[in-house]
Design brief:
Elements (H helix, E strand, L loop, with lengths): L1 H24 L7 H4 L1 H34 L8 H29 L6 H17 L2
Helix pairs in contact: 3-4, 3-5, 4-5
Length: about 130
């Protein structure tokens, strides 16, 4: 047991070594690219806001649909196909309404975002959460 702990400690210290070498050598003290370039900062922040908000909303709605299908055992129902199509129709409407509301809030706070990317990111995240990938 002590031998395993010693090997783990050595591997952990070796894996952390490049970060400590960078900090001591001064490689981390280079000027930040984002501080010097306002257009690059604006470009990245608009994409990050779009993907973060859309992804969170999509993952939440997709997980809720998956949970409801499992909770009420929709797959064994005689009208399972109808219920699944109904749940996905309602999910997409609710997801799009939530995103539209979030976009109004982002506009009110003057946060840059990409409208289409937010909807597509939410759509992809919704399916990934539903499929539990």
């Amino acid at each position: 047991m002590n031998k395993r702990m010693l090997i783990f400690a050595v591997l952990l210290s070796v894996s952390a070594m490049p970060f400590s070498v960078l900090a001591v050598s001064g490689a981390c003290t280079k000027k930040n690219v984002f501080n010097n370039n306002a257009s690059l900062r604006k470009f990245c922040s608009s994409y990050i806001a779009s993907l973060a908000v859309g992804g969170c909303i999509g993952a939440t709605t997709g997980s809720i649909v998956r949970y409801l299908e499992k909770r009420f055992d929709i797959e064994s129902s005689p009208i399972a196909l109808f219920l699944i199509l109904l749940s996905w129709t309602l999910e997409s409407e609710i997801r799009n309404d939530i995103i539209a509301g979030m976009q109004k809030d982002l506009d009110a706070y003057k946060v840059e975002y990409k409208k289409g990317l937010m909807f597509k990111g939410a759509w992809v995240a919704s399916w990934l959460a539903y499929l539990q990938v």
